[in-house]
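Re: that backbone. Tokens:
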């Protein structure tokens, strides 16, 4: 069985060509799938009946199964999704005044083991496939539309999600071959039709893959910096030992050659007493000077068992001011959906543990949860 959500635009075209169908069939099906979010071939009423029957026989439309669906008072909504083999990943919808953003996961767990990250603590479980990545956007749009969620930033009946950030669980560039086809669907006019500035991929700094992304699908790039020097970054973001800062900064500059007029967003998690001192801010100014960029300061989101604490608010503000005084655009990320552990970047929470609890709860129905 072919999962239609697995097929990027070229693959869908090839699929229909292989069956002797006209190319526009692929476009019709793409619109049913990715603009009207149908989950049933029979609903594709502009396809001839025999074609529908043939498709129903050997394809399926399969998004991940929802294990849990939670909405915070600020409207942030989190879906916990089954990723097979006892794994779960999260997708988070963040409504704002002028946009609806979906934070998408690319892997169950992560191998890169950043010191302050709950996903890293789980270790690597598995790469999501393209259908599971695209399925997150498909599912969120479909569910929000079906629920009649008011989206003042789009016309009624249109997909409520206008922006995608690959900032959920996992390192998207470590799952390049499944992530890029998903990105292509996000950008395709006959699928989600998002502009390349509205699709952001966040990486901890896999340099060779940053170059490949530039060549194959240059969406907006965010880079998790978190430290202004190699000594500290080696400890916080261990991949830095393989791709140190000088190499990473050069890769960012090369990336921007493919994305003229753009900038890189540097993410910097604020860790009390670790990377938040005036000397770190000064070193950061010097480091990013050569790269057109914005700085996004992320208050650390604590999780059980971590020794890190979030920097006090005044220190984060002072840090931001140092950057701004040097002419760098720096913002402090607003914490959203904190009460459902859905603040972006802190998706993992204890997903794995929680999944286990849920499974345990299901096996023992008397247990309250
Ligand atoms: N693996 C990619 C994308 C997912 S993480 C990356 O590392 O960039 C998205 C962002 O959240 C990254 O900047 C990551 O460093 C940050 N993050 C991870 N754990 C966090 C935590 N506990 N509090 C705040 N930000 C965190
Ligand atoms: Fe992986 Fe990103 Fe977490 Fe690092 S911060 S462990 S790269 S998900």
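Recovered sequence:
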């Amino acid at each position: 069985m072919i999962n239609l959500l697995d097929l990027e635009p070229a693959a869908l075209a090839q699929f229909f060509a292989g069956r002797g169908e006209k190319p526009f069939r692929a476009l019709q099906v793409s619109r049913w799938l990715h603009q009207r979010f149908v989950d049933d071939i029979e609903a594709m009423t502009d396809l001839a009946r025999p074609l529908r029957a043939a498709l129903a026989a050997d394809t399926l439309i399969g998004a991940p199964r929802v294990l849990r669906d939670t909405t915070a008072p600020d409207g942030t909504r989190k879906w916990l999704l089954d990723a097979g083999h006892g794994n779960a990943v999260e997708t988070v919808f963040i409504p704002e005044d002028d946009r609806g953003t979906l934070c998408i996961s690319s892997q169950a767990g992560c191998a890169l083991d950043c010191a302050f990250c709950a996903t890293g603590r789980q270790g690597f479980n598995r790469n999501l496939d393209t259908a599971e990545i695209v399925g997150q956007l498909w599912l969120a749009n479909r569910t929000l539309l079906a629920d009649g969620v008011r989206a003042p930033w789009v016309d009624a009946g249109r997909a409520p999600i206008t922006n995608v950030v690959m900032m959920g669980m996992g390192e998207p560039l470590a799952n390049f071959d499944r992530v890029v086809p998903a990105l292509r669907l996000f950008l395709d006019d006959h699928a989600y039709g998002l502009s390349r500035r509205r699709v952001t991929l966040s990486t901890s700094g896999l340099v060779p893959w940053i170059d490949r992304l530039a060549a194959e699908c240059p969406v907006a790039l965010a880079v998790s910096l978190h430290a202004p020097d190699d000594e500290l970054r080696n400890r916080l973001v261990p991949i830095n030992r393989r791709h140190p800062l000088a190499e990473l900064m050069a890769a960012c500059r090369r990336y921007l050659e493919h994305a003229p007029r753009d900038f890189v967003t540097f993410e910097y998690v604020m860790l009390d007493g670790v990377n938040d001192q005036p000397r770190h801010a000064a070193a950061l100014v010097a480091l990013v000077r050569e790269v057109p960029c914005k700085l996004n300061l992320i208050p650390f989101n604590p999780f059980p068992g971590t020794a890190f604490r979030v920097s006090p608010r005044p220190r984060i503000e002072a840090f931001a001011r140092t950057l701004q005084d040097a002419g760098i655009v720096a913002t402090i990320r607003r914490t959203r959906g904190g009460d459902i552990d859905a603040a972006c970047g802190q998706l993992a929470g204890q997903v794995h543990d929680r999944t286990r609890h849920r499974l345990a709860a299901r096996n023992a129905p008397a247990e309250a949860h």
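Confidence is low (pLDDT under 50) at residues 348-369. The radius of gyration is 21 Å.
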